[in-house]
Amino acid sequence: MSRRLNQGATALMAAAIVAGPAAGGAAQAPGQPPAQPPAAAAPTADPAPPPENQGFAYRPEGRRDPFVSLLRRGSETTRDNTIRPAGLAGIAAAELTLRGVLQSRGGYVALVQGVDNKTYIVKPGEKLFDGVVRTITADAMVILQQVNDPLSLEKQREVRKVLRQTDEAK
Q: I need a surface site. Which of 12, 13, 57, 145 has the fewest CB within 10 A?
């Protein structure tokens, strides 16, 4: 802002020098104090305010929003814009990571972590967003996942989450 004010004042002074006495009135006699410049020729101290920052509006038009992180795969809504339930019921099978297996009175329970970085305790028969936990063994968990692909002949598939990655599980 000060640079704009300095440039404007410099341009105004240059115009006054070029115009000389013809623009302002009579010539100054030697020994007299300089005459005051007319009020119209004085530079204004209040320049126009800078334009307000309107921000940036992104119009996707069918493209991916570049400001949304690719690291967070899960989201609050699904592809058909329905809101996911909170907690374990809103996490898909692909978004789960098996972190541990505990032996309980009736069998095994699994410690899983979702994309929200929360840890959940899962028992066989619990529902996920796109499936149901079928079985839990000492080193793995099997999820019966619903397939939403209209071209697929099978409507369910088994997803196996292993506790420790081995050469045969890769």
A: 57
55-170: CATH topology:
SH3 type barrels. (2.30.30)
Strand order in the sheet with 140-146: 131-136, 140-146, 156-162
Average predicted confidence (pLDDT) for the chain? 75
Start-to-end CA span in the chain (Å): 62
- Alpha-carbon distance 18 to 68, whole Å? 58
% residues pLDDT > 70 (the chain): 55
The whole-number pLDDT of residue 166 equals 63
Q: Where are the domains of the chain?
A: 55-170
| Token pair of 34 as six digits | 């300089």
Entry pTM: 0.49
Q: How crowded is residue 8: how many other Cβ atoms within 10 Å of its Cβ?
A: 13
CA distances from 155 to 141, 145, 147, 152, 160 (A): 20, 9, 5, 7, 17
